[in-house]
Amino acid sequence: MATVRALACAERETFANLLESLTPEQWDAPSLCPGWTVRDVAMHTIAYLGQGRIALARNMFAARWDVGTLNANALARLGSVQPGLLAMTGRAAHLSGELAGGGVALLDRR
């Protein structure tokens, strides 16, 4: 398990470094995900870090159990976050939250 945590921390640090290296044009460029910019993908990647079971359930309820709406709501909530803050948030986030136990992006702590 310690190896998984070390990999997750290294992955998160590498991702944060990448985010910090992007130019404004790169942030606003289309990603490989249709209809999403690089900024959207970055926000989606960190939007649920540390979110507990109750918060996730509340957000899913607000989205009427539609994952697309859940993601759209998260992007709207984080839409004005500056790139440097996104990188810092991703780097500083603890390996916790409801999604951590599912092995999502090497975040499994259990």
TrEMBL record:
An example Gene Ontology molecular-function term: metal ion binding
Q: Which InterPro entries match?
A: DinB/YfiT-like (IPR034660), Maleyloyr_isom (IPR017517), MDMPI_metal-binding (IPR024344)
Which Gene3D superfamilies does the entry link to?
dinb family like domain
Tell me which domain of life the UniProt entry assigns to the organism this sequence originates from. Answer: Bacteria
* Mycothiol-dependent maleylpyruvate isomerase metal-binding domain boundaries: 10-58
Q: Which Pfam families match?
A: MDMPI_N
What name has this protein been given in UniProt? Uncharacterized protein (TIGR03083 family)
Query: Which species is listed as the source?
Result: Mycolicibacterium fluoranthenivorans
